[in-house]
Amino acid sequence: MNVLLVGFNLDGAMGDNYYQLCNNMVVDKNYNWFGLSQKNKRLKIDEIDFKDVLILEYNKKNLFSIVHEIKKIKNFIKEKNIESVFFLTPNLVFNIAISLILKGKKMFYFLHDPIPHSGEKILRRLVINLQNKIVSHLSNTVVVASDTISSSIKRNNILGLRNKKIEVIELGLLDNLAFKQLTQEKSEEEIDILFFGRIEHYKGLDVLAQALRYSESLGNNYTCQIVGKGSLNEFIKDKDLSLFNINNEYVSDYELASFIKKSKIVVFPYKNATGTQTIQAVYYYGKPVIVTNVGCFSDYVVNGVTGFIVDNGNYKELANKIDFLIKDYDIRHKMGANAQSVTKARFSMNMIAKKYIKLLKIEN
Question: Do 89 and 191 lie in a common domain?
Fold first, then answer.
């Protein structure tokens, strides 16, 4: 069978996920694997062991450029006799075109954001919803990253997918964040609390600020490190900015891994979320997490075993869990050890790739 792996959004973790999934899927020589993506300075898609790959270069603001690239895609699909396709990243134009070209063929769509998160601008949210709806309905199977997301789609008939076949395949550990030598080094846990990721209002850092103030009122003062690009001033009061040490930039993978390694706990107090590959990296370094009950977090965190799940927006509950873990060294490290075990059992990228390949066999 000739299978096409499509991925156009190559920024950040989404691009890393596409690149690493493809590298692990093409190992299975029972299928002929083809790639379709765009040129990217960071990720060398053409170095993946595809039977062949089409790398596009286009001006997204130029309609003629886009139409020209769609013609190239159509010719590539016909020439390579593509029989099945995996859409592994969203794209506002090409995914729709490809799904129409391949209508009637076996199609699998990874639906990253069934409901675009509140960090997206309104127009982009509308376009993402349109793309998600069209490609999802044309696909044989929709893939989502957690049982919670699947249940939410069915319960609320999101995008009209209540009766659609939905498979759950978790997001894996990104290998570019896994530095084995760091796990073997001893380092001081000099950071009490770490948050990392793009700084946006829906990430709940204002709730974390409330939790830290509440802890202060109880006589607890903790160091809280934020690593990520964005403006806290838009949603954090000026007087609360002093609660954080802010590294307001994108850091290298190794630097981020080092921050995780030096932390006691990692906190993700999101107000809404869908898929995530943050938890997996934290687990790899044996650190417990505190998360809110949104998106994949409640599926990827085993409450009381690898960390704690708190109610979204409940700053007192968040503060209490922070206090508990920071003060109890033994429990914290036991949870961290549990987290490392979960990483090996659930989040290996090779294991995730095999789950995608299994979909081909089921559809056959």
Answer: no
Residue 233 backbone phi and psi in degrees, to 5:
-60, -25
Residue 292 sits in the same domain as residue 326? yes
Residue 56 belongs to domain with CATH number: 3.40.50.2000
Task: Work out how many domains the chain is built from and give that number.
Answer: 2
Residues 231 and 93 in one domain: no
Which DSSP helix (H) or strand (E) runs through 15? Answer: helix 12-25
Cα dihedral sign for 126, 131, 136, 138?
Answer: positive
Strand partners, 133: none
Per-residue pLDDT tens over the stretch 218-274: 999 999 999 999 988 888 888 899 999 999 999 999 999 999 999 999 999 999 888
Query: What is d(CA 227, CA 266) in angstroms, rounded to the nearest whole number?
Result: 11
- Per-residue pLDDT for 317 more than 70? yes
Contact present, 159 and 133 (Cβ < 8 Å): yes
Q: Phi then psi for 55, rounded to 5 degrees?
A: -105, 120
Name the token pair of 29: 């020589």
Cα dihedral 329→333→336→340 (10° resolution): 170
Sequence letter at residue 173: L
The label of the residue with tokens 């687990």 reads: 283
One domain, residues 275 and 356: no
pTM, 2 dp: 0.93
Token pair belonging to 159: 């995008």
Q: How far apart are CA 6 and CA 127, in angstroms?
A: 19
Residues 196 and 85 in one domain: no
Looking at the structure, tell me whether residues 92 and 191 fall in a common domain.
Answer: no
Domain extent at residue 224: 175-346
| 3-state SS assignment for residue 162 | coil
Using a 10 angstrom Cβ sphere, with 0-12 exposed, 13-18 middle and 19 or more buried, the burial of residue 81 is exposed
- Strand residue runs (E) in the chain: 2-7, 32-38, 52-56, 84-87, 106-110, 141-144, 166-168, 191-196, 224-227, 244-247, 263-268, 289-292, 307-310
Structure tokens at 203: 């990430």
Residue type, 299: D
